[in-house]
Amino acid sequence: EAQVTQNPRYLITVTGKKLTVTCSQNMNHEYMSWYRQDPGLGLRQIYYSMNVEVTDKGDVPEGYKVSRKEKRNFPLILESPSPNQTSLYFCASQQPSTDTQYFGPGTRLTVL
Amino acid sequence: AQSVSQHNHHVILSEAASLELGCNYSYGGTVNLFWYVQYPGQHLQLLLKYFSGDPLVKGIKGFEAEFIKSKFSFNLRKPSVQWSDTAEYFCAVNDYKLSFGAGTTVTVRA
């Protein structure tokens, strides 16, 4: 089944404790992206990757890092999480020719 | 990047009522347009999309949307909603990157 998976789905952590949210897709898509969803703000792009070893900042990259060592994986790293990073995070992948993004199930992160 | 406006934050209606959600984007040029739906506790799913051709596009679950280029609009419609349409709906516009609106929460009362 074609899908985007994320882990963990729920995470509660404390300020400053490094964490990684994994994202994996099995559709061989070149483009992958991370979003955060906050009430009243919709989805805002954090980082995106056009292909392996190619990443770039989205609209709200501060406090986040990503890497793209393999085509299928695109982890999101919070080196020192802060409470304002409490949010719902979505990973997405896309084949550029179709221009349609497929979303993962989301990761609800709470930073205390 | 585009700025995407969704006119309503929260819409409440009864089953069998008609639904129309407004979406406007900020400037013209070649754009691709999308409506995504997020059911409670689930991830975003594509409802429909417009790339070119007939400005009236039909999607899944009886939804349709009309692209009006002169108004920079892409409004979503459904003639008769069901309780299962309770969800959050997002309009998105792609010129060189995908930009989302803030979302509209739709609550359908049985």
Q: How would you characterize the overall build of this protein?
A:
The complex is a heterodimer of chains A (112) and B (110). With 112 residues, chain A is an all-beta fold. Helix content of chain A is 0%, strand content 52%. Chain A is built from no helices and 11 strands. In chain A, the strands form 2 sheets. In chain A, strands 2, 4, 5, 6, 9, 10 and 11 form a 7-stranded mixed sheet that branches. In chain A, strands 1-3-8-7 form a 4-stranded antiparallel sheet, with no helix packed on it. Chain B has no helices and 12 strands. Chain B has strands at 4-6, 10-14, 19-21, 23-25, 32-38, 45-50, 56-58, 64-68, 73-78, 87-94, 98-100, 104-109. In chain B, the strands form 3 sheets. In chain B, strands 2, 5, 6, 10, 11 and 12 form a 6-stranded mixed sheet that branches. In chain B, strands 3-9-8-7 form a 4-stranded antiparallel sheet, with no helix packed on it. In chain B, strands 1-4 form a two-stranded antiparallel ribbon. Chain B is globular, with a radius of gyration of 13 Å. At the A-B interface, strand 5 and strand 10 of A face strand 5 and strand 6 of B.
Provide the succession of SSEs of chain B: EEEEEEEEEEEE
Strand content of chain A: over 45%
Broad shape of chain A = globular
Low-confidence stretches of chain A: none
Radius of gyration of chain B: 13 Å
Layout: helices, strands, pairs:
The complex is a heterodimer of chains A (112) and B (110).
Chain A: E1 4-7, E2 10-13, E3 19-25, E4 31-38, E5 42-51, E6 54-57, E7 65-66, E8 76-78, E9 87-94, E10 101-103, E11 107-111
Parallel strand pairs in A: 2-11
Antiparallel strand pairs in A: 1-3, 3-8, 4-5, 4-9, 5-6, 7-8, 9-10, 9-11
Chain B: E1 4-6, E2 10-14, E3 19-21, E4 23-25, E5 32-38, E6 45-50, E7 56-58, E8 64-68, E9 73-78, E10 87-94, E11 98-100, E12 104-109
Parallel strand pairs in B: 2-12
Antiparallel strand pairs in B: 1-4, 3-9, 5-6, 5-10, 7-8, 8-9, 10-11, 10-12
